Amino acid sequence: MRAVQSGVRFLPSGGSESLPERRGIFIPGALSQGSYSGFSEPFYHKQLVEFVGSSKEILPRCRVEIVTNGDFVKAQKLRSLFDAGLNTLLISMYDGPEQIPHFQAIIREAEVDPERVILRKRYLPPGEQYGINLTNRAGMVILKEVEVAPLKEPMKHQCYYAHYRMMVDHTGEVLLCPHDWGKKLIVGNVRDQHIVDIWTGKILTPVRQRLAAADRRFAPCNVCDVVGTLQGGEHFKAWQEFYGGKKGPP
Known about the structure:
- By secondary structure, the chain is an alpha/beta fold.
- It contains eight helices and eight strands.
- The chain has helices spanning 23-26, 48-58, 75-84, 99-110, 161-164, 195-199, 204-212, 233-242, and strands spanning 5-9, 33-37, 63-68, 88-93, 117-121, 165-168, 173-175, 186-189.
């Protein structure tokens, strides 16, 4: 059975202390959101409720969300997840509008606040981009009907993803970002490395500085069409202050 992936967001704190002395601020005090989503279906995992409960116990101020296609969403499980501390459930609906009343009935039966369950219309036609902000997933997706394909030349544009988000695969491998569907750039593994050492380490540090300088001339960013600056501006600025304003490779 495949475990779920987790996307987490971190914000560095300014200061002149050395990194080893500042480890604590990178995790418990700075993790703002954790998401169980990615390349597999979270509801397929039998320990999902336990995972959510543990996340909230360890990081009580962290927002925890789950992204699902809804196939395994039942009222009892839904109630258990929110009782365990889940903040938001996002259901991606691919079949059609008939799914809306189906999920609304489950939400009512579970006696869950409907504002905390977001129904996403992924069944919309190509003209409406299928209800999602489509990207080529770092060059892995080709959709001719909506003109999505790997780039022939790298974009000259900054990207904030590596400044605020970490993607941990079920193997423990840490991906560059959630758009790297090909898993072309593995920055570490939480099974044998401290998560802070990965987050502040020798792979991500130069990557951040290159992306800050709008330099995407490395895989997988060289074929990626993600704008990358729609979120994470606060984190980006904090990292620039932490690095002393440097924008190029060290």
